[in-house]
From TrEMBL:
Residues 17-219 form the Beta-ketoacyl synthase-like N-terminal domain. It comes from the Bacteria. This is Beta-ketoacyl synthase. InterPro entries: Ketoacyl_synth_N. The lineage of its organism: Bacteria, Pseudomonadati, Pseudomonadota, Gammaproteobacteria, Alteromonadales.
Amino acid sequence: MRAFVADSTLVQTECRERLKQIPASTRRRLSSYAKVLITAMLELSERHPQLKDTPVILATRHGDLHRTEKLLRELVRGEVLSPTQFALSVNNAVLGQYSMAADNRQSMTTLSAGEQTYPLGWLEAISQLQSEAKRVLLVYSDEVPPAVYSGQVQSPAKSFSHAVLLDRENGQELILDRLVAKESQLQEDVWGVASSVQKMFDDGGGKVVQDYNGVRWSWHVAESLADN
């Protein structure tokens, strides 16, 4: 599958100055997960005003897991859950907050698919681009899981959001491949994969390959195309 990457950013911390664009009443409700995610989207929005009319895809393996874990602990203690906190814990809640703050009325899609959430987010974004949208904003975002889940999952190793503006015609030409892997390569944490993909865009070319239990995904930007 082919698409063009018009711009991208990888963010690990919130930007308080950018978040001032969000109304204070909404900003107070944002979790650390939501703040980093929206920071990444606002960074690209500052460079590309057309994002106001661009569909958004959020790929997240865990969502706002720290908020969810807090709610679960309250349930165990027999406490009454806050309707607001519960509403903000679902995966599409942060997109709703972004949509209202940015006045973006385009489609908002969330995707969660276990360890393959990152590449399948790319697949969904490119599929939408090829079928109907002229451009799509893809955002992958996750935090380091709470300690209580350390026995089940350790990924991602770092909290981050990776935002990528995909275009049908303009930018660095990207090829996304999915193959059956006969021999599995060393698997990287999703943080390592996303940071390698971002570095590839920054360098203007390269290839990133990642195996997931017999499935091999690759992201490729040809240097000769990037230099033209």
